[in-house]
Every structure is written in structure tokens, then in C-alpha cells.
């Protein structure tokens, strides 16, 4: 029930009541200054614009809540009579004006609410769009990071695969090189074996023609018996090292020289004059190969000295030197005091004399010196590929003068 009053309520009295009170109709605090409290209980409140009837902002409104309204006394017969009395024209006009004002106010409030709702909807829509955009950006950022990780992983995987491929290629190349090297070694061994077999067959087919030294030895022997095969005398006659003048640092230390059991006394005399360090040259074997060897070939009777390493620690360097001399078809020449010592590999001997304890070795002969000889045609083991012999003279070491 609403009863407007002509007097205004003091704001200082109403403000404490308005704090924290909500409207019973709209359930919102709204504008606290427009709240109207129940005249009876002063606990319940309604906004002026939520009340039924005309909205009055400039006068006091007397309002009773539903609970208090039931407690009110029924109106007297006078009031009923007054209310039943016909309304005058002024009251009707006033009521019409109030109704129009109320409608205008309600329309205004509705427009405000509608505009507020539209603004709220726009704000919510913008917030929703912002959330969508932020979510899209976040999703896009996550996808970009994921793509970057995939790209980085692919790059790393590609690098790893390339490294693995390179390693496989290197390992495959190394294996191929090892296989080729083994094939080459086997081919050389087979070729050497075939050569040994051919030489052995040749030796078996033809009778050995002894050289002049062997013939003299055979004629002077008792009962004209054939001499025993040459063997190195157990006690070494010389020990020292080789120093190659055309090889940087090419020194084979601690060599032992053993006289052949068929060598003459001149070999012993000349060997005892050798220095501890022999300054040697590496030459093509064809340059220093004696003519007698070209026609008949060397035999065990041609050996003056046997050369072996003194200890096991020298075997590796000695075997390397022997292999290089064999593969490159070289010979060693040492200028002694009265003669030249020429050293060859044991592969130049007949098959039965080529190995000593299953290994190749070096053997040497003494040859008379030549005054017109020049030190040309030296080669180096360290050189790889093609060996060149400048100003090569074919008459070097052309005649044999074994001591």
C-alpha cells in the first residue's frame, strides 16, 4: 500500500537505513536513495520505480509490506463512503496526470534498462571476442612453438642422420680400403708364391751352374764332393746400424752381420774394417745388379754376409725395411774401405734359401770399387707413388767382383 505524503524525510535519517538494503521486487540494491521502507516494520524496502502506481520522487511515500498490511485495521465506514463517493473532475485529472507521468517514467526506465542491457551485451560480446582472440592467439602460439619444435627436431634428426651416413661412408670406405689392401697383399703373396714356384721349377729343370768361386771351392774340396748349403755362422762378425743418406732419419739400429759358412777370408778382413754406422744409399736393384746374377742368378754360394736384427725390438723396423726393399725392387750400397758392400733381399735367392726362420732377410756381397762411379739414382722409401732416378747411369755396378 502506497500513500504519498507532502513532507520530505530527512536524508540523514534515511541514509543509514539504506545501506546494504535490497529491493523486495527486483532483488537489487539499485539506487539506494530511491528505496522506500515499510512504514510499519522499517525492515522491508522497495524502489520508488518498482512500486505499483505512479512513480513519485519529490514526495514522501508511505508504503506497507504485505505482512504489515494484513495487520492493519479494516477501513471505517466513513472511509468506505468517502472512497465510494464519486470522484470530482480535479482528482480524475490529477490521477490521469500521475498515470501519464508514471508511464513516461517507466518507459524511460525501460529504455535505460534496455540500453544498459544492450551495453552489457556489447561488453559481454567484446569480452567473449577478446577471449576468443586471446585463445586463438594462444593456440596459434602453441602451434607455432610446436611447429618450431618439430622443425628443430627434424633438423636435429637430419643432422644426426647425415652424421650417421658420413660415419657409415667412412667406415664403409675404411672397410673397402682394408679389403683392397688385404686383396693387394694376398695378390702380392700369391704372385710371390707363383714366382717362387716358377723359380723352383726352373731350378729343378736346369742344373745349377756354379760360378767361378763355387767351381774353385768344389775343385779344391776333397773327393770332389758338393759343398754343404751356406749357413750363417752363429757368432756375428759385425754389429752396428744403417744410416741412409737419402732418407730423413732412416736409421735401422742394432743390426748383426754373420759371415756365410762358404765365405772366404777376404770377406772377414773387409768386414772387420766396417765402421759401427754404415752410411748407405738406396738404389734401384737393376743399377747395382751384377752381370753374373743376370745370367745365372745368385745362389747361396754368392752370399758373403747375412744381416739380421739384434733383438726383438728391432724386428719391426728391420721387417719394414726388408718389405720396402722387396716391393720397390731396391738395393743398399755401402762404401767400405777397399770395396763396396751391396745388400739385397733374400727374395733374389733361390726358393730354398729365401727364408730364415720363416722370414725374409738381407744378404750382402763385396764388389770392387770403380773410380768413375757416381752417386746418382738414389731413391727414398718415404716417397710414395712413382720413383724417379735422375741422370741414371746404366754402368753403375755393372761387373761383379765378389771378395
From TrEMBL:
Q: Which InterPro entries match?
A: AIPP2-like_SPOC, PHD1-3/5-6, Zinc_finger_PHD-type_CS, Znf_FYVE_PHD, Znf_RING/FYVE/PHD
Q: Would the keyword Transcription turn up in this protein's UniProt record?
A: yes
Q: Which GO terms describe its biological process?
A: negative regulation of transcription elongation by RNA polymerase II
Domain AIPP2-like SPOC-like, by residue range, is: 238-366
- What molecular function terms (GO) are annotated for this protein? histone reader activity; zinc ion binding
Keywords attached to this Swiss-Prot or TrEMBL record, sorted alphabetically, are: Metal-binding, Transcription, Transcription regulation, Zinc, Zinc-finger
Q: What is this protein called?
A: AIPP2-like SPOC-like domain-containing protein
Amino acid at each position: 500500500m502506497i500513500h504519498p505524503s507532502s513532507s520530505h524525510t530527512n536524508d540523514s535519517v534515511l541514509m543509514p537505513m539504506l545501506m546494504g538494503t535490497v529491493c523486495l521486487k527486483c532483488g537489487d540494491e539499485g539506487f539506494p536513495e530511491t528505496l522506500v521502507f515499510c512504514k510499519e516494520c522499517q525492515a522491508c524496502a522497495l524502489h520508488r520505480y518498482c512500486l505499483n502506481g505512479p512513480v513519485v520522487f519529490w514526495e514522501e511515500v508511505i508504503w506497507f509490506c504485505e505482512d504489515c498490511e494484513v495487520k492493519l485495521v479494516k477501513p471505517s465506514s466513513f472511509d468506505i463512503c468517502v472512497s465510494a463517493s464519486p470522484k470530482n473532475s480535479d482528482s480524475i485529472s490529477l490521477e490521469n496526470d500521475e498515470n501519464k507521468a508514471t508511464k513516461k517514467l517507466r518507459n524511460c526506465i525501460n529504455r535505460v534498462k534496455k540500453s544498459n542491457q544492450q551495453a552489457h551485451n556489447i561488453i559481454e560480446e567484446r569480452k567473449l571476442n577478446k577471449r576468443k582472440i586471446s585463445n586463438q592467439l594462444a593456440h596459434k602460439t602453441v602451434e607455432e612453438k610446436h611447429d618450431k619444435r618439430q622443425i628443430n627436431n627434424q633438423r636435429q634428426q637430419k643432422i644426426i642422420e647425415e652424421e650417421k651416413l658420413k660415419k657409415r661412408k667412412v667406415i664403409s670406405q675404411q672397410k673397402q680400403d682394408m679389403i683392397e689392401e688385404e686383396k693387394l697383399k694376398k695378390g702380392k703373396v700369391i704372385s710371390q708364391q707363383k714366382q717362387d714356384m716358377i723359380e723352383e721349377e726352373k731350378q729343378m729343370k736346369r742344373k745349377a751352374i756354379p760360378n767361378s768361386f763355387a767351381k774353385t771351392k768344389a775343385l779344391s774340396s776333397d773327393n770332389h764332393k758338393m759343398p754343404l748349403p751356406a749357413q750363417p755362422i752363429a757368432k756375428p762378425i759385425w754389429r752396428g746400424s744403417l744410416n741412409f743418406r737419402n732418407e730423413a732419419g732412416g736409421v735401422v739400429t742394432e743390426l748383426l752381420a754373420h759371415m756365410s759358412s762358404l765365405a772366404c777370408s777376404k770377406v772377414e778382413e773387409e768386414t772387420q774394417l766396417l765402421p759401427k754406422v754404415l752410411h748407405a744409399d738406396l738404389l734401384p736393384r737393376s743399377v747395382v745388379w751384377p752381370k753374373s746374377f743376370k745370367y745365372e742368378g745368385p745362389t747361396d754360394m754368392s752370399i758373403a754376409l747375412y744381416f739380421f736384427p739384434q733383438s726383438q725390438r728391432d724386428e719391426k723396423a728391420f721387417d719394414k725395411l726388408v718389405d720396402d726393399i722387396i716391393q720397390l725392387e731396391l738395393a743398399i750400397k755401402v762404401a767400405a774401405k777397399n770395396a763396396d758392400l751391396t745388400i739385397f733381399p733374400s727374395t733374389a735367392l733361390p726358393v730354398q734359401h729365401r727364408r730364415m726362420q720363416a722370414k725374409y732377410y738381407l744378404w750382402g756381397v763385396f764388389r770392387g770399387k770403380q773410380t768413375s762411379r757416381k752417386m746418382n739414382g738414389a731413391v727414398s722409401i718415404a716417397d710414395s707413388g712413382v720413383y724417379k732416378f735422375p741422370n741414371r747411369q746404366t754402368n753403375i755396378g755393372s761387373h761383379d767382383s765378389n771378395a
